[in-house]
Write a structure and sequence with these properties.
By secondary structure, this protein is α/β, with parallel strands linked by helices. The protein is 39% helix and 12% strand. The longest helix is centred in the first third of the chain and has 20 residues, at 116-135.
């Protein structure tokens, strides 16, 4: 894997949490006539923020062109073509700032669906997003990440059906589509099997590799094989990294009228083994139950020791890293000074040096004043994936 002069990039997906006033897409309902042009105006400010914080990779929301592929709303179908000039200008600014962009279509975009109509609609969605990247005039580093999809009671048939879906995709989709190993259905070995039959480039996901690796593939060797799926001249490979959530999950549950009446009467019995965040009052309608973590869930921040260990294992390999901590850009604002403090050799690979220390100190001080994490599930948190 040949290196280039450019340091490795670190990126984050979609929502900007360090600047709550920055929106990543036009979220208005169809009655208000939302438009890709409005999303691009909002994202123009996001690019400025990324530049100011020296964050050089960003995943665009897959919904920046609202209703552009909604089958019952033809009034939106020309949205991407109508935004050609704006897309070209946005792409030019991203290139000027040296910010790498990508899409990660939702879990409802499936190339291996048994229903051919769903596959057809998925290809339409992918075509629309690939068209946006093409109109931005971005090179092949700007990719769309997808998963194999559902098992549908037949793992082998579903894996093979993905290839048939791939073969139906137009050239501009195949050129940008990349395939990621997931955490509960299709392992690294599965996507390598598909790559050997299609040539599709691969995205290595570190946390998914730990969650699903029944073939017991070696981490370093597998990473090398994933990176080698990117031919010379098709851009620098990228991977996904996240730490698993370790804290107790808080589950909100409704209290039934019968249980509430029993509580008032003093006859209520706690469920065996149930752990509550706080005692439940007799008049309460909601209780918070605490449950152990699900290891496919993403932590708010990245464990710097885990990441440094991985990067040292990957010494000599060249790839960009999309960090999928649920606190988005804030996880990077914390990770960079952590690397400088605990693993300066790893920090240097990302172009992070002691000259950045004062700026990072200001970021850490701001984080200490209080931040939030994203409550909604990420597209890569497998336990919530829709495909069955």
């Amino acid at each position: 894997m040949t290196s280039t002069h450019r340091p490795l990039r670190l990126g984050f997906p979609v929502k900007v949490m360090g600047k709550p006033d920055l929106k990543s897409q036009d979220t208005r309902r169809w009655q208000k006539n939302p438009h890709l042009k409005c999303s691009l105006e909002l994202l123009d400010k996001v690019l400025d923020y990324l530049k100011s914080e020296k964050l050089d990779m960003y995943r665009l929301s897959s919904d920046i062109a609202p209703y552009a592929t909604h089958p019952d709303m033809p009034q939106f179908h020309s949205m991407v073509a109508d935004s050609d000039a704006e897309l070209r200008a946005f792409g030019a600014k991203a290139k000027e700032y040296d910010i790498r962009l990508s899409f990660h279509p939702s879990q409802y975009v499936l190339l291996n669906a048994p229903n051919p109509e769903l596959t057809k609609k998925s290809i339409w969605d992918l075509s629309s997003q690939a068209e946006m990247l093409d109109r931005m005039e971005l090179d092949d580093e700007a990719v769309m990440i997808t998963h194999v999809g559902g098992v549908y009671d037949d793992h082998e048939a579903s894996r093979t059906r993905w290839i048939k879906g791939w073969e139906q995709c137009p050239e501009h989709v195949q050129r940008r589509l990349v395939l990621e190993n997931d955490d509960i259905r299709f392992s690294a070995a599965d996507v390598l099997w598909i790559h050997e039959r299609t040539g599709v480039r691969l995205i290595f996901d570190y946390q998914h590799m730990w969650c699903l690796n029944p073939e017991r593939l070696d981490m370093r060797e597998t990473l090398e094989r994933f990176l080698a799926s990117w031919p010379e001249g098709r851009g620098r490979p990228k991977i996904h990294f996240s730490s698993p959530r370790t804290e107790l999950r808080e589950i909100k549950q409704k209290i039934t009228p019968k249980a509430r009446a029993a509580a008032k009467a003093g006859t209520a019995k706690a469920k065996k083994g149930e752990l509550l965040k706080t005692p439940v009052k007799a008049t309460a309608r909601i209780k918070t139950v605490l449950r152990p973590p699900i290891w496919t869930g993403h932590a708010d921040f990245t464990n710097p020791f885990e990441f440094a260990t991985f990067m040292r294992m990957a010494e000599g390999l060249v790839f960009d890293v999309m960090m999928e901590g649920k606190s988005k850009d804030l996880s990077l604002l914390r990770l960079r000074p952590d690397l400088l403090r605990f693993a300066p050799d790893v920090a240097a690979r990302f172009g992070i040096t002691n000259q950045d220390a004062s700026a990072f100190a200001a970021d850490e001080e701001r984080l200490e004043r209080g931040v939030d994490a994203e409550e909604e599930a990420d597209v890569d948190e497998g336990q919530l994936t829709a495909a069955a």
